[in-house]
């Protein structure tokens, strides 16, 4: 709050005569200023993993069959992305190395890939035809050493 | 023997139906995935074939499978709660 006052963006600045007047336009990011709008990962950030390292858009016609990088923005300019970021994110779907580049307070769902698909008989037994989605939720929130509460 | 065959056929239909339902969800987000489309086609054909086989041997599974040449058989075959299928 002190920071805000020092930067003259406290909602009610003191006027010369001691009365408060209407707040001035916020000037900074100390909690009282205008914040940058969070940027969604995807079209403008290289790929669905939110990786910004390559900085550019990419041609989704060259995207892998897994669908990673498919973009709903039809107006985007298609440019070829020959960097490694897109590829590495798709190959390493569950541990995107670019996570540090992603905006906080947003939820991300990795793109599913067509792999490890089983038969219908096996699928109905385990509840999914996708091996990637077979999760050991047994009497715990999760059984993957991630702090699940028993 | 008849019961075993019936149960086996019904399980195959269930498995194929499940595979179709699950791959359908994937195709909703990956509509051009050729492998997924092939998987869908495979189980769709398999299900149609098994349903036809079941219907011919044991009667209709759903009302739209009733063959009216034999009259209205829908009420003649066991209901699910009778534990026959």
Notes on the structure:
The complex is a heterodimer of chains A (150) and B (85). Chain A has 150 residues and is mostly loops. Helices cover 13% and strands 0% of the residues of chain A. Chain A is built from three helices and no strands. The longest helix of chain A has 7 residues, at 85-91. Chain A is elongated and about 80 Å long. Mean pLDDT of chain A is 54; it is low at 1-94. Chain B contains two helices and no strands. The radius of gyration of chain B is 15 Å and the shape is elongated. The mean pLDDT of chain B is 91. Chain B has helices spanning 2-29, 34-58. With 85 residues, chain B is mostly helical. The longest helix of chain B is centred in the first third of the chain and has 28 residues, at 2-29. Helices cover 62% and strands 0% of the residues of chain B. Chain B starts with a helix and ends in a 27-residue tail after the last helix. At the A-B interface, helix 3 of A face helix 1 and helix 2 of B.
Which structural class best describes the helix and strand composition of chain B?
A: mainly alpha
Structural class assignment of chain A? little secondary structure
Uncertain stretches of chain A = 1-94
Largest sheet data of chain B: none
Fraction of residues in β-strands of chain B: under 5%
Largest sheet, strands/sense/barrel of chain A: none
**Tally of strands of chain A:** 0
Low-confidence stretches of chain B: none
- Report how far apart the termini of chain B are: 14 Å
Rg of chain A (CA only): 23 Å
């Amino acid at each position: 709050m002190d920071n805000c006052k020092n930067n003259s963006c406290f909602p009610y600045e003191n006027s010369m005569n001691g009365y408060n007047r209407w707040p001035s336009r916020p000037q900074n990011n100390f909690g009282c200023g205008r914040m940058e709008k969070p940027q969604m990962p995807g079209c403008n950030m290289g790929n669905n993993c939110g990786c910004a390292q390559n900085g550019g858009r990419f041609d989704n016609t060259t995207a892998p069959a897994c669908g990673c990088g498919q973009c709903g923005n039809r107006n985007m300019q298609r440019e070829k992305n020959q960097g490694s970021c897109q590829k590495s994110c798709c190959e390493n779907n569950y541990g995107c190395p670019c996570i540090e580049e992603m905006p906080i307070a947003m939820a991300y769902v990795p793109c599913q890939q067509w792999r490890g698909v089983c038969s219908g008989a096996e699928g109905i037994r385990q509840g999914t035809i996708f091996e990637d989605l077979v999760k050991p939720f047994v009497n715990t929130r999760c059984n993957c050493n991630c702090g699940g509460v028993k | 023997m008849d019961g075993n065959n019936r149960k086996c056929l019904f399980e195959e239909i269930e498995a194929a139906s499940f595979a179709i339902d699950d791959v359908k969800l994937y195709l909703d987000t990956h509509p051009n995935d050729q492998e997924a489309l092939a998987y869908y086609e495979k189980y769709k054909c398999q299900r149609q074939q098994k349903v036809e086989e079941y219907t011919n041997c044991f009667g209709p599974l759903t009302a739209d499978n009733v063959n009216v040449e034999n009259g209205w058989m829908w009420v003649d075959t066991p209901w699910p709660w009778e534990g026959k299928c």
